[in-house]
Amino acid sequence: MDLHILSEIEASNFKPIKLTYAIRIYSSTREDAPLELKKSPWYKRIVEYTFDVIDDEPCEPGQVSLCDTGTVELSESVARDLIMDFSRHSNGIEALMVHCKAGKERSPAVAIALNELFGLGHNREELKTKFEHFDCKAYETILRASAKRLY
Description:
The chain has 151 residues and is of the alpha/beta class. It has five helices and four strands.
C-alpha cells in the first residue's frame, strides 16, 4: 500500500491516483480554516481527528506546562475509533494519506502505527528514522488501544 505522510499544504496539493483513505489531523488550538483537499473520486474515505502533540519534557521553572494550556491529548478511546474506522473502510484501498499541520509529528505517528497494526508493507525502522520527530506518545497510545482488539 502506498503511504503518504504529508503536511497540510502538501495534502491540499495531493492528487490521489489510487483508491485512498485519508486521515486529517488538526490541532485543538487551530484558528484558521483548514485547507481543502482536491476533489477526487479516488478518495474512498476522509476522516478528521483533533489532537495535539503532548510534550512530557519537564518545564523550566516558571514555564507553562502544555497540559495547562488546554491542549487535547489523543485518548485511547479516540485511538480505538481511528483503528476501527480504518479496519472497516480499508478494504480495497491502495493508498493511505495522513496529514497534520507540518507532517513531522502527529501524522507520522498515526501512519507508522497503522503500518505496524495492518501490515501496510513499509519498514518501521526506516519510517521512524525518516520521521525522527514523530509523536511517540500518540504512536504508543494507538498501539495500546490496539491491544483491546475491538476491531
